[in-house]
Amino acid sequence: MTEYLSQQIAGIAIKALLYEVSLSPKPGLVDRFSNGAHQDMDFFTFIDSIQSLAPFFNEYVLIGYRHNDVLPSLFSKLRTVGIQAEKSMLAATNQVNTHKGANFSFAVLLGATGFYLQNHQLPLTEKDSKNILMIVTEMTKDLIQKDFTDLHQKRVLSYGEKLYLEKKITGIRGEVSKGFPTLSTLLLPFLRRPTKESKNITLLRGLILLMSTVEDGNILHRGGFDAWRQVQKESQQLFEMELDADDFLKTLQDYDKKMTQKNLSPGGAADLLGLGLYFAFLENIF
């Protein structure tokens, strides 16, 4: 793999994150016009964060391309570099967590993409995307067992660990270890459908679709189980209304105010939208 190709693929991931933060209006989330439910970050914090991750995204691709061992060991390599990327992100944002989940997911996806491109070329097809997600499943098949073993013996638990113990909710780890089924069975089929709507409207509808389904750790952390279920219900109703573009944007603006007042932010859904955009760009969907 040439350095140009690895940078090209990493650049597609960076573009996906830039698209995601630029979409507006997003309920409870940072966008061009609002900080949503976040008091410690804004649109420019996200730009700083994305720039800090760029060299690591390139490294993830190269690690995958150069890997010639079993796939679980590839995941271990990527996770080690991912920890360094997270430190770089926090340094760039004054310790604000903007992309911890997205960095973790993109480390896996970019590594799997690099590995796949040992024997394939761009642009990707729908079948190629499915094959890359199968590689992710093989890479991370022991992730849940390793990360959630012996939690009862730990003194201090993360919120994700507490959710697993109390509700068996696996969050992003579960999504990754299953090969991102929310992407393959929900978001990507939605994005592949022909539409005359703008990218902004199409992707905002995709976000609402994700909010109706995803085990969103951000909402669970901020509002608890009942708040998460309520957001899922409201999002499903909004998606199924099939409003025209103007009414949809106005409804989103109102919903943004409601989510912000409740201090709720669907960051998990936003991360998955960014991952979906990555595949959409690789497949030339837009």
UniProtKB/TrEMBL annotation:
<keyword id="KW-0067">ATP-binding</keyword>
<keyword id="KW-0808">Transferase</keyword>
<dbReference type="Pfam" id="PF01874">
    <property type="entry name" value="CitG"/>
</dbReference>
<protein>
    <recommendedName>
        <fullName>Probable 2-(5''-triphosphoribosyl)-3'-dephosphocoenzyme-A synthase</fullName>
        <ecNumber>2.4.2.52</ecNumber>
    </recommendedName>
</protein>
<dbReference type="InterPro" id="IPR017551">
    <property type="entry name" value="TriPribosyl-deP-CoA_syn_CitG"/>
</dbReference>
<keyword id="KW-0547">Nucleotide-binding</keyword>
<comment type="similarity">
    <text>Belongs to the CitG/MdcB family.</text>
</comment>
<dbReference type="InterPro" id="IPR002736">
    <property type="entry name" value="CitG"/>
</dbReference>
